[in-house]
Amino acid sequence: MAFELPELPYDYEALSPFMSKETLEFHHDKHHKAYVDNGNKLAAEAGMADLSVEEVVKKSFGTNQGLFNNAAQHYNHIHFWKWMKKSGGGTKLPGKLESAIASDLGGYDKFKADFVAAGTTQFGSGWAWLSVKDGKLAISKTPNGENPLVHGASPILGVDVWEHSYYIDYRNARPKYLEAFVDSLINWDYVLEMYEAATK
């Protein structure tokens, strides 16, 4: 099925001052749109136009780098927009998530420190992730557009550390951006929805 650029689930001003209107306009309207346009062209050429985005990501990993780059980034961004909301973040998590983070990751404070560290130490472009793997939560990082789907895990939260995600607002202060993401942007309800789907 053809890739489509989703509408943002909020207006361009909604995440300010933690993510500006200008960042969202460039990131969603230009960068994400390019992944959709290139991904559709490359998926058609590879005979994968009828597959879901998840299937294209898994099938193209290690076999068709150009298609994988665009399909994986499309998948990542579909969820990235939903992983944020106005007045998000903070320590008030849904009970089920709070329990899982306590038992699998050593509690919220350790989760935050480890998640920010994963994003900070990802050299160059990439992502930091909270995923379900073998029934347990795990934190990881990946280069470029790679994501936990291709490593046998189900991502439930990801943060984009490509420079276009933060440079307009934070310049080179990536840790500051990551802390703002956790403290003020995460949509924990959507994380819970993905967690429940991954642990069925």
Overall pLDDT metric: 98
Order of SSEs, N→C?
Answer: HHHHHEEEHHH
> What percentage of the residues does DSSP assign to strands (E)?
5-15%
Spatial order of the strands in the main sheet? 2-1-3
List keywords for this structure.
mainly alpha; 12% strand; 200 residues; single chain; 3-stranded antiparallel beta sheet; 8 helices
Description:
By secondary structure, this protein is mostly helical. Helix content is 51%, strand content 12%. The chain is built from 8 helices and 3 strands. It has helices at 21-45, 53-60, 65-82, 95-105, 108-121, 167-170, 174-184, 188-198, and strands spanning 126-133, 136-143, 154-160. It has a 3-stranded antiparallel β-sheet with strand order 2-1-3. A hairpin with a 2-residue loop joins strand 1 and strand 2 (136-143). The protein is globular. The model has no long low-confidence stretch (mean pLDDT 98).
Helices and strands, with pairings:
Layout (H helix, E strand, L loop, with lengths): L20 H25 L7 H8 L4 H18 L12 H11 L2 H14 L4 E8 L2 E8 L10 E7 L6 H4 L3 H11 L3 H11 L2
Antiparallel strand pairs: 1-2, 1-3
